[in-house]
Amino acid sequence: MKLRIQPTDRETLLSDDEFIISKTDTRGRITYGNKVLIDISCFQEHELLGKQHNIVRHPDMPRGIFHILWELIEAGKEYNGFVINLRKDGGFYWIYTNVTPSYDASGQLIGYYSVRRKPKREALDIIKPIYKQMLEVERQAGAKQAITASRALLNDILKDKGTSYDEFICTLQH
Fold this sequence. Notes:
This protein is an alpha+beta fold. It is built from 6 helices and 5 strands. The protein has one domain: PAS domain (Beta-Lactamase), CATH 3.30.450.
């Protein structure tokens, strides 16, 4: 059962030298989380292990972005992006994340490995309004068409900028 956490406006910032590291199985259940993840999320380790990684999903995060993430990693590619996560106490934290598939010695997919760090504030100034637009389009489209609608909006934004999703995201952070 997913906890019902009431979001607040309390932001927690990662420091420049902190990295959040986690591993999940192929279905997104957390198999490892480092101390930074445990501390910033306000969850205890036993509350995270075995749970879906979306336990920290913030309601202000567009579903279309997670659709891109899963599309890429299930295809064996890495994902880079900006994510707002929800803390157990209702607060939030922004991250720049890299998610990569993990394979065993025989090349079999065994899960996903994620390293997150502090995002550039200038990047968030650009991302936040885009996410807000995507959320609004998702709400207007309804549950069945939400992802399609927000992906279409994002594709239009990227087309106007003359760039791909990966190029756009990596340019913002670097």
